[in-house]
Amino acid sequence: MACPRCRSMPMAVSGFVVGLLIVSTSAVFPVVVSRHAHLRTATNYHISVLCVSDCVVGLTLVLYPTVRILWPELGLSAGLCVTVLSISSVCFTVSNGVMFWLALDRRTAIHHPLVYPLLVTASTVRWELLLTGPPALLLVVFTLATRQLSEPPLPDIIPKCFTAWHLVVGDGAFLLNGVNLLVIGATLALSVDVLLEARRVLRAAVVPLPHQMAERVCLRQHVRTFYYLLRVLVLYGVCLIPYSVYALVMAWWDVPLSTDRSERLWNAFMVLRAVFNLADSWVYCSNPELRQAILHLCCRSQFGLYP
């Protein structure tokens, strides 16, 4: 009979492959935005933070199986597993928070098109990140500390780290998943509100007065940007919400995951994560300016910077 350590390797390998995919598809966007001044907008800053967060998750998925292969004893230790799951949890929570700010950014642009550049700046994005990153870190630290103080200690060896979420977090899984789902729900509510307003703007048949022309042109530009970002929001929700809902239900009913069920959940989550990053990259490239900048970065001699 195969040993538990050997049976856990296919999950680590699948995580390694998806991690490489995440890093390769998410690392390009922040590099392109940082290199070109005309792409440094509040919206692109939000997406850059999302990409950086995804890259960190991808690196953990790549490094964990690498450590498992090169240093088996360290790779199976509970300390490494707690570190990997903590980093992934913080990044997941930060991503959800940034998606909320991104939806709020689009709502501000649709409802206040002319004063939007004054309301949302690079400084605004920095404040939003300060309101997202530290609370996410404190939330994860609190759940882990609560588990260590109130529940039995962790075993020395955790062979299947990626499916040991409830073992590592304990009762804090309900709090962490509940907060994430609350933020996701607020993001979806904002997206629906902006979608209804965007449809009203695009279907408006009334000819604007001369003093309304600038606002109408600016508004239509923001609407087009929103429809471009809406695909990102929908992809994010379709691919990641089912995982959060399932984890929350398991935490609420205190249902321990069986080995087969946890492996199926992990494989399904990896497939959804890969689909999300592939489709996400296509969405980014559907923006003409970003597509041209990416082509210029990869094939500088054949493509100019501007479309």
Protein model, in words:
- The protein is mainly α.
- It has helices at 4-7, 9-26, 28-35, 42-70, 72-75, 78-111, 116-119, 122-130, 133-150, 165-169, 172-203, 213-253, 259-285, 288-298.
- Helix 2 packs antiparallel against helix 4, helix 3 (28-35) crosses helix 14 and helix 11 packs antiparallel against helix 12.
- The longest helix is centred in the last third of the chain and has 41 residues, at 213-253.
Briefly say what this structure is.
With 307 residues, the chain is an all-alpha fold. It has helices at residues 4-7, 9-26, 28-35, 42-70, 72-75, 78-111, 116-119, 122-130, 133-150, 165-169, 172-203, 213-253, 259-285, 288-298.
Keywords:
307 residues, mainly alpha, Rhopdopsin 7-helix transmembrane proteins, 14 helices, 79% helix
What is the SS-derived class? mainly alpha
Largest beta-sheet details: none
Continuous helix count: 14
Strand content: under 5%
CATH homologous superfamily (4th level) name: Rhodopsin 7-helix transmembrane proteins
Count of extended strands: 0
Output the helix-strand order. Answer: HHHHHHHHHHHHHH
CATH topology: Rhopdopsin 7-helix transmembrane proteins
* Averaged pLDDT: 71
Number of domains: 1
Q: Please bin the fraction of helical residues.
A: over 70%
CATH architecture: Up-down Bundle
The CATH class turns out to be Mainly Alpha
Report low-confidence residues grouped into runs of 5 or more. Answer: 303-307
Span between termini: 60 Å
What Rg, in angstroms, do the CA atoms define?
22 Å
The coarse silhouette is globular
